[in-house]
Amino acid sequence: MQQDVIHQIKKFSAQHLSEVIQYRRELHAHPELSFNEMNTSTFIAVRLKEFNIPFKKGMAKHGVVGLLAGKNPKKRIIALRADMDALPILEKNKVSYCSKNEGVMHACGHDVHMASLLGTAKILSQLRNEFEGTVKFIFQPAEEKAPGGASIMIKEGVLKNPKPDFILGQHVTPELETGKIGFRVGKFMASSDEIYITVRGKGGHAAQPQNLIDPVLIASQLIVSLQQIVSRHASPLIPSVLSFGKVIANGATNIIPDEVKLEGTFRTFDENWRNEAKAKMKHLAENLVYSMGGSCDFKIVESYPFLKNDERTTQNMIAAAEKYVGKANVVEMDMRMGSEDFAFYSQHIPACFYRLGTGKKNKPVTSVHTSTFDIDENALETGMGLMAYFAATA
Fold this sequence. Notes:
The chain is of the alpha/beta class and 394 residues long. The protein has 2 domains: 2-190 and 306-393, 3-Layer(aba) Sandwich (Aminopeptidase); 192-304, Alpha-Beta Plaits (2-Layer Sandwich), CATH 3.30.70. The protein has 9 helices and 16 strands. The strands form 4 sheets. An 8-stranded mixed sheet has the order 1-2-4-3-5-16-6-15, with helices on both faces. Strands 10-12-8-13 form a 4-stranded antiparallel sheet, covered by helices on one side. Helix 1 packs across helix 9 and helix 5 packs antiparallel against helix 6 (271-291).
């Protein structure tokens, strides 16, 4: 029976690949930023209507939720999720499907996630009389922007009526070759908090430091000192990262500004340490800046919790993946300091978030969140088929 299902799904995946590639290219060419996915939402709704899958639009502004009943629809409820939003990046790829929205790009593979899930929906719509249970398709906006579309959709009831027994999500991974799938049981991806600091001093002529309170110097000292929170207070058993990616000091070679703005991120895998570390950072910042004659505003925007893969669900998915793609193509992943708002789902119901290989053999790897990110589109055949197999048999 299992082999028959695998054969059917692989046949449909191969048949639909060129169509799903076109879905991906259309979505890639027309990316939309978080909470602005209006046209993306319409594109998804049109496809679900073509597949004769009932759906609802408008959750978390532009989310789309489809519901496909198989045989015995109440026997089990499975949720499958894809994120929809793009990033504020100017694409540099020279391809026919390059972004037409200047400064916006699907540089994290959400176009792949959506196209893959649409392919999965089409396959399952063709098998609706052959699998048991109900499949909930969650097309979720705003994964890239706090507070995260997942948290809003959960508040608006996406995990109710009907409540899923578990939820699955996949993410492109260029470090893995096409055809390979990566899993990790338990804690997988880190929590994420955004840090915004304004350091205020007294600006003036750079040649007269005795008359100034230099916020550039203070901010520089602060960045270095804050690293001690991680290097000297965190347990070596709890991975933690503190990084600052944006520093704005609008002075000049001979002008010291009145203030400097810092923006960074803090990531970890333990909620108690997460809260303790943020309190220590705030205390250190305020006291250090004050001791150097300045003042500061220290703001933390809480983003996503850590992502945990339910052990039983994930082990079941690993076993199913080994049947579908072969044991040699299923790999164990390390914990990752990247964050994902799929974590919100994992805090509410059993969840499995896994990695889809999208890299091409013997081709240099281009990382996500870069202006030249792209994929081996053959990965879509594996992406849609494997998720359909999970939904039909798990």
